[in-house]
Amino acid sequence: MNPPVSGRDLWGQPRGLTVLFLTQTWETFSYYGMRALLVYYMTKQLLFAQEQASMIYGLYTATVYFTPIVGGVISDRWLGRRAAVIIGGSVMALGHFLMASESLFFFALAAIALGNGLFLPSLPSQIDGLYAKDDPRRGSAYNVYYVGINLGGLLAPLVCGTLGELYGWHWGFGAAGIGMLAGLAIYVLGGRHLPEDVRRPRGSVDARPTTSALPAHALRQRVIVLAAIALIVMLFRGAYEQVGNTIALWSDTGVDRALGGFVIPMTWFQALNPLLVISLTPVFVAHWTRQARRGAEPPAARKMALGALGVGSAYAMLAVVSAVAAPGQAHWLWLALFFVMLTAGELFILPIGLGLFARLAPTGHGATTIAAWFFATFGGSLLAGFLGTAWTRVGPTRFFVLMTAVAATAALLLRLLDGATRRIEAQHIEARRQDQQNTVATGCCEAD
């Protein structure tokens, strides 16, 4: 299948990437716009107890990352990627609009989670088809796409959060639904710039050549190490995923948000994370590139351990602040600094972990390995919801100490896995080297 020939856009990339970029931006806008309001809506409008609201939030965010495991199979085997994006996005938009009815609250959450299951794996899987195999732009395509994700996450709390907080919850939810429809419109109208949609029939076998098989013991070791990392990341997310849960509650009741004569809307702080991702990513990438040229770049597991430790440090800072400040009097700058530290830690662990899973996926099991990474997000979101139920019972200071311990434990476990991770990465590099030698040898024999 040849990539569509459709010229280049402002990034020097195929126009199809712009279509996918903007579709993803608006989908992220809709999802995070609704999520920015969710805990507040449950506790202030529906009058759920804090423990119940935190658990529902955790179950919802967990389900959002579980349904793509099933949705990806449905997309590949039956619907095709384009139909899956359109159907999934339409169901998500319906869910956002259903949030206008309090009696349909749980149906709305279910619709958004189910629609996301079809949408999430089907949109980015079209990126590779935009490029020829030797196109040098392929490597930067995912970086551009990731900016689209965070652009939507940046705009969501500023628009949906502000509307919901100042003018009424349903205005914010309605804006999220309109954002999803905007993304669908861009996707449908830009369809001519996207690669041809191909479904793999059930029972078919991929005939492409595969790399040489690893010895059974080496494959077993690789699977065990990746599974261990997934479980540790699950633990880490128990602390990280508090951003839209208990951290959102603390920004409402524990922080003095006055700035001159203006009170900063509580949802605006949730825009700091995507803004900082966009700002800090090129800085860290440039730093790691310089380290790699000197042969001094830290191994993946060590980076991830540093990231978890950074997030633990962010919570430790909040524990001190909440212990010293009077209730409701912590300066908003402390919350802003928390997001700086949290995002820096995130960039050391989450993108690095995803790359590690993609790089070390056993031959023929790439999708399953990436699904394991999504499953870690699913389990971590559940854990975050469970941990969040302790917020009212133990109070902010003790809760932040607990989150510090959770993140620090994940950091220690990742550091202990450093040696095993470096060994399987070395095996992977050696296996690729042997594959290249075998390919060259086969080509020479065929030429003879």
What does this protein look like?
The protein has 448 residues and is mostly helical. The longest helix is centred in the first third of the chain and has 31 residues, at 15-45. It folds into 2 domains: 1-198, Up-down Bundle (Growth Hormone, Chain: A), CATH 1.20.1250.20; 215-437, Up-down Bundle (Growth Hormone, Chain: A). A hairpin with a 2-residue loop joins strand 2 (258-259) and strand 3 (262-263). It has 15 helices and 4 strands.
Produce the secondary structure layout.
Layout: H1 15-45, H2 50-79, H3 81-98, H4 105-122, H5 138-167, H6 169-189, H7 216-240, H8 246-253, E1 255-256, E2 258-259, E3 262-263, H9 272-293, H10 300-324, E4 330-331, H11 332-360, H12 366-388, H13 391-394, H14 396-416, H15 418-447
Parallel strand pairs: 1-4
Antiparallel strand pairs: 2-3
Helix pairs in contact: 1-2, 1-5, 1-6, 2-3, 2-4, 2-12, 3-4, 3-6, 5-6, 5-9, 7-11, 7-12, 7-14, 7-15, 9-11, 10-11, 10-14, 11-12
